[in-house]
User: Fold these one by one.
Assistant:
Number 1:
Amino acid sequence: MNVQAWTFVLVGLSFALYIGVAIWSRAGSTKEFYVAGGRVHPVLNGMATAADWMSAASFISMAGLIAFMGRDGSVYLLGWTGGYVLLALLLAPYLRKFGKFTVPDFVGDRYYSQTARFVAVLCAIFVSFTYVAGQMRGVGIVFSRFLEIDIVPGVLIGMGIVFFYAVLGGMRGITYTQVAQYCVLIFAYLVPAIFISLLMTGNVIPQIGFGSTLVDGSGTYLLDKLDGLSTDLGFAAYTDGQRGVMDVFAITAALMVGTAGLPHVIVRFYTVPRMRDARTSAGWALVFIALLYTSAPAVAAFARTNLLTTIVDRPYSEVPGWFKNWEQTGLIEFHDKNGDGVIQYVGPASDLENELTIDRDIMVLANPEIANLPGWVIGLVAAGGLAAALSTAAGLLLVISTAVARDLLKKGFMPEISEKRELLTARITAGVAVVIAGYFGIDPPGFVAQVVAFAFGLAAASFFPAIILGIFTKWMNRDGAVSGMITGIVFTACYIIFFKFVRPDLNSSEYWLFGISPEGIGAIGMILNFIVAITVSRFTPPPPASIRALVDRIRVPGEG
Amino acid sequence: MNPDRYWKINLRYLSILLGIWFLVSFGASVLFVELLDQVRVYGFKLGFWFAQQGAIYVFVGIIFVYVILMNRLDRQSNTEGA
């Protein structure tokens, strides 16, 4: 069987599995639709959380990003895992005990304010849409490259699948399909990683393999070889950092806190039975995430070494087949500037002589081909990329539909709405959101990639301080929380908009505040939020006694 | 055990564990990474290893230690219903 046949079979089988699971686990009530009835086993919820969290960006882009950033790539590794410590220790157990269905629910009730609820709803919807557009784009890329289908029908198939299980199954359907999707995606990520680790270092475990010596008999450590190759070509050494310490610190902090504040992650912890299950479940989620996240830097180092040794300074006429395949997608480009027919790939210092442009996204997708792995492994990677994109998209669509049906209508404009109509509204909203997300996937506005920093920055600067102060203090009041959230959002949004859209020409470290890039500014927004919230609360009336009782109640386990 | 005491013990656990969390992430992997890079372990520079591997393992450990501590505290205080 050739690669394309394998891909069709494996992708088809995985889709059939998701649909089967979705039919088996349909939602009947709003509680099942929003939080799967609150009866999901903690380990399964951990697995679903891992699939929910690991998006097309984690699966397809992250190892590629690290391959090009070297040690600085650790901002993603640390940021996107360290946030789970905050989630497990500071947020998940208490939000579970609080026991409603959404983040805006908590913010609105704890701060006895429809304004606070409304601000939280807008943030949740904005963050989720930003994110979901990227997922649909990932679906499009996988379909167009591996199945040689146009992006449009590719995205339409993806939309159809998500529509089917998110709209029918709600949280219950999503949870169990995400468990299946986790299994597909982790298998698809680890198989090629193990293969390549074996080929290059003779070590089965990639996490150890990338610190081992190469199998070429030279006795050189892989990372030393990679450092040498990089500096020879005029790049920085792979294991050295390029970005300023302050910037790395801020980006890591913004990604960690943003992760802990993302509504589609938080809502997963409402689905387990008890407070203690929320803690355990966050632990399992991180175990399942760490499996991929500790393999990613190994994959990055392997891919970078392979790339530098197989095509650099080779005649273009002798490049391997995968090079030409990916050239057709435009993700890899070769311009023979000096006309010698040889591929020159050199570092930023001598940019004019560089003849090769490589999109970071192909590092994972092309890796099995670069390493000459069998056809079924390549097909598996396609199925894994789709699993990662679809599971995250579904989780986000649910947040959007819940935000509209529950937070805006039931708790806002139409409190007398019946459960049946609320459920119908949630389903219709999910359907509309799928269509909008699909549109972004087919025809992505140029700003999609640039607004991802927004999602984390806004989650960090808005939700996180409001939730933390709501749990860990009894004195934080409505006025403090609302003014803090608004300050954090406005500051973060203005900084990002200024450097990304108004004056992109100034977007370099000499103009940044404290040397912090727009990607990391959410960390400062968060600090401002805390300062403003605490200051304002000192000069405004304290929260009523019922709120202090609410805080007492969520801090301890047990009923009541 | 009264709720205030339960909460105080919880806060003590949290401050110790979050201290470790800060040390391995922002400490070993960001602020002191160059210093730790002087040490080599196997094929890794130590700072690089913490930044791309070690910190993640410690994160997992922190959560499970907290799970065990809190489950024990819940049993002692016997406030866990249902």
Note: The CA atoms of residues 254 and 523 of chain A lie 5 Å apart.
Number 2:
Amino acid sequence: MRILIIEDERKLADYLCKGLIENNFVVDVARDGVNGLHAAREGSYDIVLLDVMLPGMDGYAVLKHIRRDKPTHVIMLTARDQVEDRVKGLESGADDYLVKPFAFSELLARIHAVLRRGSAQEPTVLELGDLSLDLARRKVTRASERIDLTAKEFTLLTLLLRRQGEVISRTVLAEKVWEMNFDGDTNAIEVAVRRLRSKLDDPFDTKLLHTVRGMGYVLELRDA
Amino acid sequence: MRLLSVPSIRQRLILVFGVIALVGSCLAGLVLFKVLSYEVRHQEVTEVRGKVELITHLAAIQEHPTDAGAFRKSLTNLLGEHEYLEVWILDPQGSVIYGKPFPTERYGVPTGRFTFNMADGRRLRGLGTKISSDELPNYSLVVAMDTERGDKLLYAFGVILLAVCLVWVAFVSVFATWAVRRSLSSIDRLSDQAARIGPRDVSVRLPTENIDIELRKLSTAFNYALDRVQDAYRRLEGFNADVAHELRTPLASLINGSEVILGKPRSAEELRTTIISNLEELESLQLMVSDMLFLARADTGAVAAELTLTCIRSEVGIVLDYYEAVLESADVRVNVVGDAGVLANARLIRQAISNLVSNAVKATPQGETISIEIHSDLESVHIKVRNRGPGISEEDLPRIFERFFRADSSRTQRPQGHGLGLSIVSAIARMHGGGTFARSGDGWTEIGFYIGRKVIVNAG
């Protein structure tokens, strides 16, 4: 997967570049709007991360030109979070809109979400090791034992299973699972995850749900 | 009116007074003059009528009325020499048998009241009658009076009247100028006082004692506005200091932690732990910054956008779902009463409810119940969260919605949250044309907010 970062803030661009390479993306960086647009037109990128405030040519203009040529996915990055700015970004054809400061895990999640869009139909049964979640029958089993979950726990587990191996931040969980799409009291999530873990992992030897300190949670099979 | 568009109150009042005096005195003078001139004319005619009666009587008792010489003598005896009075007796053919030459060729033989000009330029007013005695059949008697006497009187009166009017207008103008100047001098005093109010002297107020009632109202209103400005100013200063303080502590720990860790070679695990701790610190800073930005926007008068018909009860439901695990582990139950649908930004309402519930959960002891009440009337929707637990003291209660306010003023032990939760509730309520309320007693606390039902218009 190829990603182009158009960002004039050198430090941020470098960090993003490094993080994305470590997550197995092929990454190029452009430092201003004109070079960025040129690169986006010439190269074949799956996703362009586009800053709004750019020297040379602002992000909206770059986006307009990219959209004229190619159906490349574009995620806008900006420090402005007024509703009008969001609307302007999304209306001019951006796939997503991320407000600075954002967590790297959040960016990664959005990139995966954008890439997943339009991909093949998802399976109705999600699996990880001996854990299996049946979306149609809303049934969860582990080692053939049925696990009873509340509605929210089921949604939470579904999300973690779909993005298994990916660290998901508390903010993303709050938004996706509980529709609490604002920064707030994340203590509630810790408690909710702890409860899910008590049902999912505590009776078993192999742990699946892991806390990544400072970042969030990940569901994955780890070598003991 | 052009007159009233003069930009100065002083000039306008003086002008209006002057014009009123001028118009008033002109009207009065005109009426007086008219009445007097009517009286003068009436007097002349009355005098002439008296003479006519006398002469008619004289003609009746005269032995030889046709004898001009004898008649003239009797007449002269009767009337005396009056230069302003003229008497003519005309025979039926119109020729003068007594009197000066009469301009019959221009006026004929007058009957009744008449006015005419003599050949010598005098203007006469008089009466013409028939004398019907045996001796003088069909003779005419004409008596007239020179109007000059009356005209002179009227002229003199007119001049005096005009002079009185002018003096009156001048007097009124001068007096008005003095009175207006005197009345408006308190405005000047107010202006001087107001000019002294600056950023350094925000405590200066306009006088409200010993001042005109009309200005007292202005002064009071202005002072009230100043009070609010000063309050906001003080709060802003305090807020800035608070922000600096709140940022300083986590920044200090970030800087020190990083420096210490970099001071010596460390194991990867140690570095990792530090970076994680830094990340947590930074995330809380990020949350604080975005909350402060939100509050700043609400302060500059931002109103809630993206309004949809929001069911408050279902928003409460979403929030309770979020806190479900927390409530369970704290062994706290929640009881929800009432419902309302209102035009609002659902996300913001949810955030406000979430902040209230978050606070309530922290304060409620194990095994107790939190009750959430949704109450709606024609004008507003009230959302109230009541919980048992240590109450809030009387003096703290009004301050809980202030930024960074914490009931225990120690900052050494950082409590959960950054002290902006209730300020955000208050900001959200204000953005929806509402406000907040809080009550507390022994072992219970009730905090809530209300939002207006009216469609909110952007106030800028």
Note: The mean pLDDT of chain A is 86.
